[in-house]
Each structure stands twice: as C-alpha cells, then as structure tokens.
Amino acid sequence: GATQQDGWHLDDVEIYNNTKTTTIPFFDNVANVDSFSQKAWIAGAFNIKTANDHSGDGQVWALPPEGGTWNYLTLAGKLNLAGAPDPYLSFWIKKAEGGNGYLSIEASNDAGLTWNVLSNPSFSGTQYTWFEASLLNYAQANVIVRIGCYSPYGGQYYIDDILIDNAPTPK
C-alpha cells in the first residue's frame, strides 16, 4: 500500500520569553560567524555566506529569492535606548546580481507583537548602498529592530556592516 503524507514537518519548535539584551554600540560585520553573528540575530530565511562583502572580511548576511514575500533579519536581543539621545540603525546592502531592492526597516517596543515601519527605501544595482534609520522615537527600553527585504524574483540580497549606535555614521 501507499503511504499518504501531509507535507508538514515541524522540528524543535520553541516558544520562550526573550530575556536576551543587546547593548549599543552594536556592530555586526558578519566576520565571526559562530561566536557572534548567528547568536545576535533571528535569521529567518537569511544565511551567512562567503561573498563579496562591503567591509572586506569575506562574509555577508544573504537572502536568496524567496517567492514574493518579505523576509526579515531580526535582532535577537532587546535594546535599551533610554539613555541614547540620537540612536540610529545603519547598514550596507546590495543585490548580488543587480536589479531593484526593496526594504522595510522596522522597530518594535512590545517584544515584536507589532512592528512600525521606520523607512521603506529602495535601491538598484550591484554596488553596496548605505541606509540609515533614526531610532529616536524608540529611545526607551525593550526595543527590537529588523531589516526586511522583499524578494519576489531573481537576485540575492547581501547585508553587511550593521550598526546600531548613538549618532549617525559618516558615509
């Protein structure tokens, strides 16, 4: 006889109270995979890849084409921005094979239950582009940030040199 399968397979599902915290300044250049980058983020469909990066260390957060949906790289720990008079999130991004890229830079102050869009920039081409979003409206405790990329077709997104700090980064 034939075996019917439903197509759903779940493994290691976990629901927990996120008590992890992240301090500023926070910088991830994706250089030290095992001890920092993978632990600092909830990667979703992103993975760490050896590629042409912005900072010269050889690795990036990469997002392959993912069927016309938004995919997010979410900070794993909560930030306390209460003492920061001018907090910012900045990063470098490109589409590896060129084309248009669409972003949603978002923040949450309720543990990710709701997300507020800080910026919806777009870009084009194979060169790295620098983006920055103010976190001034989130100068409080328990803030989470995420970078969303829309990937309906062709081309991988590469993200590098993610910085959360208390002043804008010079270009």
Task: Please provide a brief summary of the model.
The chain is mainly β and 171 residues long. The protein is built from one helix and 14 strands, in the order E-E-H-E-E-E-E-E-E-E-E-E-E-E-E.
Beta-strand percentage range: 35-45%
Residue runs with pLDDT of under 50 for 5 or more positions = none
Q: Termini, distance in Å?
A: 65 Å
Largest sheet: 6 strands, antiparallel
Please provide the count of β strands: 14
Total helices: the number is 1
Secondary-structure content class:
mainly beta
Based on CA atoms alone, the radius of gyration comes out at: 17 Å
> Based on CA inertia axes, which overall geometry fits?
globular
- What oligomeric state best describes the polypeptide chains here? single chain
Mean pLDDT: 86
Share of helix, binned: under 10%
- String of helices and strands: EEHEEEEEEEEEEEE
